[in-house]
Structure formats: C-alpha cells, structure tokens
Design goal:
By secondary structure, the chain is an alpha+beta fold. It folds into three domains: about 180 residues, DNA primase, PRIM domain; about 70 residues, no CATH class; about 130 residues, no CATH class. Helices cover about 45% and strands about 15% of the residues. It is built from 17 helices and 13 strands. Strands 4, 5, 6, 7, 9 and 10 form a six-stranded mixed sheet that branches. Strands 2-1-3-8 form a four-stranded antiparallel sheet. Strands 11-13-12 form a three-stranded antiparallel sheet. Helix 8 runs parallel beside helix 14 and helix 12 crosses helix 13. About 0% of the residues have low confidence.
Length: about 425
C-alpha cells in the first residue's frame, strides 16, 4: 500500500479543502498559509509526505485521531518541548502519543482512537483535559496543520528517529480507547452530537431554500405585505425558525420607503405569531370524494384479485365483503392521493404540511405519500390483519424505507401504484 493510502487510512483527512504556503506577495494576499476550497489529491498528499511540497490538511467531522501541536517560538530548545510533551502525556494518564513527529517549530503528537468520535464532543473534552498547557489542538475541522514529513517521526519514548518505514510504524502505532485517555465519552453523548450536527445541516439546507423564495420578494412594499406574509411565513415555520427569527428575516426585506404598521417590530411579531398558531385556510377546506371512472376501474381490477373459497353461501358472502372492502380502500386511497396532489400544487399548504409532518416535501418528491393510520381505520377496523398485507402483495401499495416516529410526527409513507394489470 502506498504512503498516501496509509496516511488516509490512519489519519482520515478532510479531502475537500486544504492549506498551502504562498510564497509570493501580491495585491490581494500576503505570503503565508492560504486556504484552498479544492480537492486534496493523492498526488498532493504524497508530495507533502515526502517533502516535495508544503501542504496542510483539516480534520473530518468524525475523526479517529487527534493531534496536539507543541511549538517553541521563543527558542527555548528541546528541553522545553520535552517538558511540555511530558505534561501532555500526564494529562492522558501517562500514555504516550501513538506517533510523534518533528515540525519546523516543535513537535506534533498524534493519538489514534479505537473508534471515531464526533469532533465537537472530542474537542470539548480535549479543551478540558489540556486546559492551561501551552499547546494547540491541531488539526481541527476549522484549523489546518502541516502534513507530517516521512523521516521526521520520532520514537515517543526515546525521542530517537523511527527506524521502521512509514507503513510499519503506523501498523505498530497504539490505538487507544477514549476511556484510557480521559473520562469515557458515552455512546449517548456521541449520538446526541451527531443528531445535533444533522439538525444543523438540515437547517442550513432549509435556509438556502428560504433565500431562493425570498428572492421573489426583494423589497416588500405597502401593497404586497399580506401576500409576502402568506408566502414567506409558512416557509420560515417549516424550516424551523422561531417567530422571532421569522420576524427579523421579514423585517429585513421591508422596503426602505415602507412606513406601514409592520414597520413596528412588535406589531410584526404579533402578526407572525398568529400565523404560527393558525392553519392556512385551504387546508381547512373539506375535499369532496372523487369517484371518477378510472378510480372505479382500478378498484374493480384490484378487487378482482381477491380469492377465496366459494363452496358455501357464507363463503361467497365473505368473499364479496372482502372485495367490497378492497374497492372501498382503493377509492379512499385514490381520493387521498388526489388530495395530496392538490396540496403539492399550493406552496403555502406544502410548507404547512412539512411543518406538521417533518420530511413531507422530501418524501413526496420521492413519490411516497403519507397515509396516517386514521385513513386505514376509516376503511376497516382491523386493516392490519389482511387488507394492508393484500394491497402490498398485489403491489398497489409499496412501503417506503422510512419508518414511523410518533415523536417527530411522521407517519408511514407508501408509493401508490395506479398501473395494476388484470
């Protein structure tokens, strides 16, 4: 395996950004470390490891290694560096770094972990453990560090140059369980951090969508404030913004010449809070059940697939009841699909539904319709016994891979197939 592959396997650098040293002075930048939002290629890593180029890397968001940067900018000498390193190891229960490397200004100590930890959790624990020491946590997801150079690695105990090649050195390197280095980071803490990061990512995506919709209202004037409220506030609410955050965003879009009642922030906030509490009018309207020719034909086709014994009058009657129940189910679900399709055409309603049922927009875009338990119960009190399994078996319904979550307000989703053959 190449040096690059070994490094990537053990250090897991973030590949979509890197730092480099700019040597020339120009009008727009000064010499020193610069950040490039470009891909960190294998060739660049190889050149950095062998000293043919100078690059630095960032940590990924869930690392399996962390580094401690020990610098001597005042020229105190090796004795100072070793005393600081000794203090670092004492903070980690006298455990030596997995690998140690010389840097132009001091030492870089790396500790390999037995499993990855979300960086926000790891960083907070390291800050506590290393508090008061003249060291830096590097690299991080925000701060890069120079690639270690092959040939500059030292034995963490003797401080003599490592005689093994790069591959063997990494194979021998100690992997520490977090509990060995500091108070154990519990799985629950890791899961909570990952959940928080995922939430922030989703929120960022929603804010990007908001910006596109806001582009339709670059300036809100006296004549279009109500339209802007109806269009923007459901979007803000769906994205998870608080009424206060929505008010601030809306206020910033008011035209400079606007002097209406919404220029008063308290008044604007009350209007938005009212929007948050109330449903949009289109959602309240009852939909008349549609029984068109194609729905009736589809219901007859699917009901025709119901089979059963017909030897006695009771068996014939039971089979007829089953077929009628299937017809009722198909017509009800076709009507529900029609209603959801109407919802899809109204942006305000879509945002409201996405607020009520998280991931509504994503699931609908993938062709999966939310079918609450109440819809099935309207059709048959014991739908789970045979009706739902039958509709799945004939492939009229296709269950989505997304589960039910009472806490998040998400019901089961299904693809509704209208191309059923006789």
């Amino acid at each position: 395996m190449s040096n690059t592959n070994r490094f990537v396997e053990n250090f897991k650098p973030y590949r979509s950004r890197y730092i480099y040293q700019k040597q020339d002075f120009d009008l727009f930048s000064i010499p020193g470390w610069q950040t490039s939002e470009s891909y960190l290629t294998d060739n660049m890593i190889e050149n950095a490891l062998t000293g043919l180029a100078i690059y630095g890397y960032f940590l990924n968001s869930c690392p399996i290694v962390f580094g401690i940067d020990i610098d001597d900018h005042t020229g105190r000498g090796d004795g100072y560096l070793l005393s600081v390193l000794d203090s670092v190891t004492k903070r980690f229960n006298n455990l030596d770094p997995s690998v140690l490397c010389r840097s132009p200004h001091g030492l870089h100590a790396y500790y390999f972990l037995t499993y990855p930890i979300a960086f926000p959790v790891l960083e907070e624990r390291l800050k506590t453990v290393l508090a008061g020491l003249p060291v830096e946590i590097k690299p991080t997801t925000r701060t890069g560090i120079r690639f270690p150079r092959i040939g500059n690695f030292l034995n963490a105990r003797t401080f003599l140059p490592v005689t093994d090649d790069f591959e063997k050195m990494l194979e021998k390197a100690e992997r520490y369980h977090p509990a060995e280095l500091f108070t154990e980071i519990s799985p629950a803490e890791i899961r909570e951090s990952l959940k928080e990061r995922k939430g922030k990512t989703l929120r960022l995506r929603e804010l990007q969508k908001i910006a596109k919709i806001e582009a339709g209202f670059p300036c809100i004037f006296d004549g279009n404030t109500n339209d802007a409220l109806c269009q923007l506030i459901p979007v803000y609410r769906s994205a998870g913004l608080t009424p206060e955050e929505s008010a601030i965003r809306f206020y910033s879009n008011l035209a400079p010449v606007y002097n209406g009642e919404l220029r008063n922030y308290e008044r604007l906030l009350k209007r938005i809070q009212s929007f948050y509490k109330n449903q949009p009018e289109p959602f309240k309207q009852n939909k008349i059940i549609q029984m068109d020719f194609y729905s009736m034909l589809l219901a007859d086709t699917i009901a025709g697939k119901v089979v059963g014994a017909t030897e006695t009058r009771q068996q014939k009657a039971a089979l007829t009841v089953k077929k009628n129940t299937v017809k009722k189910a198909v017509l009800r679900l076709e009507n529900w699909k029609y209603y959801i399709d109407c919802v899809k055409e109204n942006r305000q309603m879509v945002e409201y539904w996405n607020y009520l049922y998280p991931y509504f927009k994503k699931n609908i875009a993938e062709g999966f319709y939310p079918i609450p338990q109440g819809i099935f119960l309207q059709i048959h009190g014991h739908y789970n016994d045979w009706l739902l399994p039958f509709l799945l078996e004939v492939r009229y319904l296709e269950k989505s891979p997304y589960g039910y979550s009472a806490g998040n307000g998400t019901c089961l989703h299904y693809r509704i197939n209208q191309q059923i053959k006789t």
